[in-house]
C-alpha cells in the first residue's frame, strides 16, 4: 500500500503533466521553426512573423488564464485541468496536420487557451492538496515537469530534424497531443481539492479526500476545521474579481501580480524560445550545433531545478528569490557588457568577435539558466499562490497568470527583432529589470516557509489590524 506522502507526490507528478506540455512546446517551438523542412512546407517566415507565431499562444493563454479562476471555482480544480488538457490536445492535433501558416496560427491560439487554463489551475490544485510541511516541494513539481518538458522538447526537435519531409517539424506536435490526451484521461481519477469541496459545502467528501492525503485523523480534523474557520471569517463562499483588489487583500494581490508579471522580464523565455538564435549569434555556425547547444541548456535547466525542489521548504522563499535575482541580473549585465565591447552588426545579423568572448557568453547563458532554475522558477508560482486566501485563490491566481502571460507575450513577440537589431540592448534591459524586481521583493516580500495557508494571511493582515485597532482606540 502506498504511503500518504508518496501518494501526494504521484498525484502532483501526474497533474504536472500540464507543465510538461508547456515545456515541450517551449523547448521545441524555436528549433522546429528553424528547420529547413519547416520552411519547405510552410514557406519562409520573417523575424516579425516568427515572433507572432511563437507569441500568439501567450495571447490566448492570457485570456484563458483570466477565465481560469472562474472555471476552477465553478467546475473544480480537477475538471479545470482536465478540460484544459483536452483543448491542448485539439490544438496540437491541428498543428501537426496544418499545411499553411494561417492554420498554424489558429492551432497555436487554440493550444494557448488550453495551456493557460491548465497551468493556472494546476498551481492552485497542488497548493491545496499538499500538507504545509511539503507544500513547497509538491507545488514545485509543476516547475520540475516544465523543465523536463523543455529539455525533452529540445532533443525531440534535434532528433526529428534528421527526418525527411514535414514529419521533421510535425513530430513534436504529435508527441504533445499524446501527452495532452494522457493528462485528460488520468485527471478523471484524481481527487478533488479538499478546499474546493469545503468551499462548496461538500464537507463529507472533503473529509474523505483529506483522510487519504493526511497521516492521522487528528490532522484531518484540524485542517478541515481550519479551512471552515478561514472561509467563515472571509465571508461569502464565492469571491468576486473586484474583491481581489479590496482594501483587505490589495497588498498581497498586487505583490503576486507584480512578481508573476515581472518574472518574465528577466528574459528567461527569450532565452528558452530563441536559444538557437542566441547560440548562433554567439558563434555556433551550423543549425545542428545550435540545436545541440539549446538541448544542453534544457539539461542545465532540469538539473538545477531538482535540488531547488528538494530544498525549497528548507530555504524558504525570500533567500532563493533575492539571491537568485542578484545572480540572474549579474549574468545578463555581464553578457551585455561583452556584446558592447566585442559585438557588432553586419548584413542585418548580430555577431560577436573572438573565441574567448563567444565562450564567455555561452557559459554565462548556461549560468543564467541555472540560477533562474533554482530560484525564481521554483519560488514564484508557489509564493504568489500561497499568499492568497482559499476563497480568493483561484481568481487572484487568474490575475497573476494573466500578468505573466501578457508580459511573456510582449517579450516573445519582440525578442527576435530585438536580438537581431541590438547586440547588447536585450541583455541590459533584462538585467536592469531583474535588479528592479529583486529590490522590490527585498522590501515587500514576507517569508511564508512552514506556515499553513490559513496562517499566511496573518503576515499581510497583522499590520492592517494593528492600524485599525489603534485608530479605533
Q: What is the name of the CATH superfamily? A: MFS general substrate transporter like domains
Largest sheet: 2 strands, antiparallel
Q: Into how many domains do the coordinates divide?
A: 1
Strand order of the largest sheet: 1-2
Q: Helix count, per DSSP?
A: 22
Keywords: Membrane, Transmembrane, Transmembrane helix, Transport
Family: Belongs to the major facilitator superfamily. Sugar transporter (TC 2.A.1.1) family.
Membrane topology: Multi-pass membrane protein
GO molecular function: carbohydrate:proton symporter activity
Written account of the structure:
This protein is mostly helical and 473 residues long. The chain has a single domain, classed as MFS general substrate transporter like domains (Growth Hormone, Chain: A, Up-down Bundle). Helices cover 80% and strands 2% of the residues. It has 22 helices and two strands. The model is unreliable at 465-473 (pLDDT under 50).
